[in-house]
Amino acid sequence: MALRFPNLPPSGPQGSELLTHERSQTTFSVHEVTKYLYGEEFLERRERLLNIVENEPALEKETRFYDGRTERFAHALRKDHRMVQLSKEHKWSAEEFMMADSLVEEPGPFGLHRGMFIPTLVSQGNEEQHEKFLKPALRYEIIGCYAQTELGHGSNVQGIETTATYVPETDEFEIHTPYLTASKWWIGGLGVAANHAVVMARLITNGKDHGPHAFCLPIRSMEDHTLLPGVMAGDIGPKFGFNTTDNGCMWFDHYRVPRICLLSKYSSVKPGSGEYVNPPNSKLSYGTMVLIRASLVGAACLATSKAATIATRYSAIRRQFVDKDKPLKVDNKVVETPVLDYSMQQYRLFPIIAQAYAFVFTSKEMMRLYYLNIKHMAKGDFSLLADVHASSSGLKSLTTTMAAAAIEECRRACGGHGFSSFSGLPLLFQDYVPNVTWEGDNYMITQQTGRYLFKSFRDLVAKRTKGKMSAAAVTNPTLAYLNTYLENSNLKCPAQTASDFYNPEIQLAAFGHRAAYLVAQIVHALDVEKRTWNSMQVDIYNASVAHCQFILVQNFILGIRGEMEQPEGMAPVEKLSGSAKEAMKDLSDLFALHLIHKQPGEFLLSGYLDAKQVNLMGQAIMTLMETKIRKNAVGYVDAFGHSDYYLNSALGRYDGKVYEAYTEMATKEPINATQVVKGYEQYIKPFTNPHGKKGRSMAARL
Amino acid sequence: MALRFPNLPPSGPQGSELLTHERSQTTFSVHEVTKYLYGEEFLERRERLLNIVENEPALEKETRFYDGRTERFAHALRKDHRMVQLSKEHKWSAEEFMMADSLVEEPGPFGLHRGMFIPTLVSQGNEEQHEKFLKPALRYEIIGCYAQTELGHGSNVQGIETTATYVPETDEFEIHTPYLTASKWWIGGLGVAANHAVVMARLITNGKDHGPHAFCLPIRSMEDHTLLPGVMAGDIGPKFGFNTTDNGCMWFDHYRVPRICLLSKYSSVKPGSGEYVNPPNSKLSYGTMVLIRASLVGAACLATSKAATIATRYSAIRRQFVDKDKPLKVDNKVVETPVLDYSMQQYRLFPIIAQAYAFVFTSKEMMRLYYLNIKHMAKGDFSLLADVHASSSGLKSLTTTMAAAAIEECRRACGGHGFSSFSGLPLLFQDYVPNVTWEGDNYMITQQTGRYLFKSFRDLVAKRTKGKMSAAAVTNPTLAYLNTYLENSNLKCPAQTASDFYNPEIQLAAFGHRAAYLVAQIVHALDVEKRTWNSMQVDIYNASVAHCQFILVQNFILGIRGEMEQPEGMAPVEKLSGSAKEAMKDLSDLFALHLIHKQPGEFLLSGYLDAKQVNLMGQAIMTLMETKIRKNAVGYVDAFGHSDYYLNSALGRYDGKVYEAYTEMATKEPINATQVVKGYEQYIKPFTNPHGKKGRSMAARL
């Protein structure tokens, strides 16, 4: 007999009333902002796809809270299968598929087939390989995975140990796993789903090791899905998150495959002689990495905005204590204050809302630069590559770190209920947080940003020494802030009042000066003090963060003004109306000022800001939050336009019926399927009623 | 047919060799430090209990990685049952039980029975109630829980809505849940295990509401464990962590219980007349809260040291890239550098090791103060209470926040493998992180610390104005740093070289000055500028952090010198030998300096440190880590003395056989029980082999 929980109303004011009140205070048009962020075409597509996915039984989101890993994986396999069917039925484009999949948000066994296997075949396979592998892969006859990392080798691809030795006698490669550390590991989709794999292995021919190359291999039988002889593979077991994906491991035992398995668009091995043919330009391979890192900025935006929506809506409903200086009355009775009215809660949540908006604009800019760079590279122009690569690495690091922190902060800001799975925040964190590690560990990859910044700085110094550089000639924003610093490294911030800090130019100059200061310090330490690179890693990380904060602040400022460059061929953006622009500027101000105020150290160390200014900035923030942002808080998160299906959270519901939904979800907990728990007879009764006495306890005990 | 993964050796150098090498470099006696931290009696007890628990089948730790919530709960119920049996067999004391339970580390359904139900009966029940409830509870005939929080009421106990109305006619209380928001929620052990509950409800008699009081009620039948009429209860569903505990919810429908259910040691209701008898001193109830918060400092230490052990050992084994300035050679061949040699990794992990040590000493000091205060209060002396309450609140907030951050940082510092459940770190984080929310939300409770600091500051100013205060007369350390600041608020740090910062007095003075500066600023804002309390919450939080960092730094300095006060009646601590003391002082230096260097803002704002000094401090930290702490890193974590059973981590193993253990654990993943996954026929084959063709793929495809 399953338990039935009572159907009681919460005490007033009701969540729905509170959210209605919040929405009535919004000073801007939510729809206008939503449209500005995403564009109408995107919104129309999202709405259309949402209608399809939210009504599909295979794509329901409720059971994920209750199921163990085995059931969750089975669910994801069923979902991935259904998604492929839907995409065929509705003739989805790749973009539509990705968007629909991101609404369902259940990383499944076919995810890497689309995300890495197919793109690698496209970019590294030759025409024959496109026929043989790519075409059937697009039809899902082949299901693939991308096997790069090994048990002992993550970030350092050059260190992988799996070998592919060319055997001229049979014109084959022998794929082999020499050590346990060479086991392929973490490979999404390999655990049980894939029948093919792109395997990164050291290409050895004529006794020479040419380093890691990509091979496309069959690993499971097309007939019955059993492992092919010479291949062992399985699932690597449970993880913090991503448990709906079968991350797998794989070993090769002198496994022979024909020469065509070496993906040969760029490098190849000549039949018989085994002569190695070099790739034309190794820089070409940066493209995919930049794309993935740039796209992670967009994913960071989604994750941040989702968490912010849940926590902000719930904080407007959740009430705790009475603010003694300003007690809230409903029907002449003092009621507890919504936690969103407390300045601490505002200081925790509002900068996160602002962060999500900041990420929107930088995400757009990174995608524009990516496509521009691809276009340039196709013409043999590599001038943009270094900047785009550096920014995408640093921004991947900064935005994913900030997004993961934001989710956890939002979770904690929901109080105890943020710990319940039904808040939606635990699973969001667990599935999001690998972003800080994969595609380049967030500490590691900032060295790539650093290298670019130091080189830019040195080049600039050299040019200035030779008198080749005028301030006006510097158009690249990174070079511009470095140049300004070199003009005068003792510049002071001109702000004298709290409201001076609402000037975007003043904000941006502070970020530029601080980033340039850090770069200058490091270059001095490396070049003059001859410090080792290793000993400077912490400073390099900080410089990358500073540079990327500058980019985020700058794009936010330009983005709300409609002054960001548009991708070639796109119509210029329509400008925001006055009220919407003002509301956006409040967030842009908060984003910039909060970043400084929360960690003012480097701004003070650089000498650009002084103690009095940091204190004024604190006032500017508190005034902004209390008088302007507070009343728009729910409006801001509504403008992200996340549906209840997407949020999948009892606390983040649009209608505010949080406690009703939460209780309803608790009734479905499998443990509640019976009133008396299964282990009672064996593990409780021997203590509480060892002799099986009859008679109700009340009478007996009291 | 279950999969068998190959039995290969990792490529060299082996983990075991690397750890042996690390251990050979340690400059101090690991055993001496372990003994100093814990005392011999503690170590002997831990060893003895470990031998019992690690050999009990019901207490195994492997299945927790693979099981879903239902199975994990069943496991925990079995474990709790077995623990009670073991405690009876071995005649464990309450302390021994707690220690054994903490080795097993599986929060189960009987945890709150011991942790809250029994202690509440002890402290708030009268003699009759001890007979009726406490004695059977100690024998586990009664199994109880502690039902305070409600769906709509967490931190604010005064806001709870459940009512207990005295009915004079029958000399009973009627317990009732008026609204959904009054549902008891989050109650550990209530979901399925408890047959009794201590319920906090508003005591109403003769129409007057006397606020929340504790009642002890039967909720499930002693005969068959079914819910009693008038009571509905169940499990609240899955959570981020703590899924082995049945956190429950409960509703009362005009549920009648006799008057004896009101726990009446302090307040009571007279039979018939219903007259309410006041508690003698409301301050007495602070005792338990202080004890719990103080004990959470010890728990923060355990969690931090556990995570640090896993991440540090694994970082000595995990190798990535080659440090070009200083390549590592084994057998004349360049091998990848252990990540522990990178300064970024050191900057991430070494302060966490130091943090764990810092927590040891402050945890001891808080427990000493708790018992001293209890002794004083029993004599009617409440002079210590305010300080202990303020410190325990602020330290609970700071240390649990730091510990949660440390676990997650350690997890990420293990690279991708930190994401695997087998690292032990995901579950550690998930089960630990509620500490930041429960027993007083970490942002909320710092206001209590703030109130005490501001009052102390105002009192001190008043006394100084009246000329009643001489610097020598101030013995309380909080007052001492406030007084020093009032003597001269423009004091500057005297350090002029990097090595000056290795002077503990210089470190401590910086923390004192900064904390006093923040307190002075807030008192000025509140008292002179008349700012509202709400508008100052962020500053108040920062002041509490600053105060508690001062305490942590001070206790660390005194602790390694053997200069901390000992609990009354305890022998003075034996001093550390020179080499051990030096190794400890390195950590103490790092702890203090890293706290400043990572967030120097307030130290700079207070005017005590300048930019040049912060840069010198950076040098002091890097030198310390590279030349002194690096070689002791594994020794430091070994000295925590955590057994492999306790760590339960493939990466943190004492013997360094991490990849072997990890692979072995992966083979046990339930998904690997069959070679071809269950859903293959239904969800994969329709794409890959729709017509059931025969013949191996290799031949067909290639």
TrEMBL record, chains A, B:
Cofactor(s) required, per the database record: FAD
Catalytic machinery residues: E439
Pathway(s) annotated for this protein in UniProt: Lipid metabolism; peroxisomal fatty acid beta-oxidation
Keyword Acyltransferase set for record: no
Superkingdom of the source species: Eukaryota
Domain Acyl-CoA oxidase C-terminal intervals: 503-688
Protein's cellular compartments: Peroxisome
Keywords tagged on the record: ATP-binding, FAD, Fatty acid metabolism, Flavoprotein, Lipid metabolism, Nucleotide-binding, Oxidoreductase, Peroxisome
Keyword check for Amino-acid biosynthesis: no
Record family assignment: Belongs to the acyl-CoA oxidase family.
Alphabetized PANTHER family for the sequence: ELECTRON TRANSPORT OXIDOREDUCTASE, PEROXISOMAL ACYL-COENZYME A OXIDASE 1
Protein name, per record: Acyl-coenzyme A oxidase
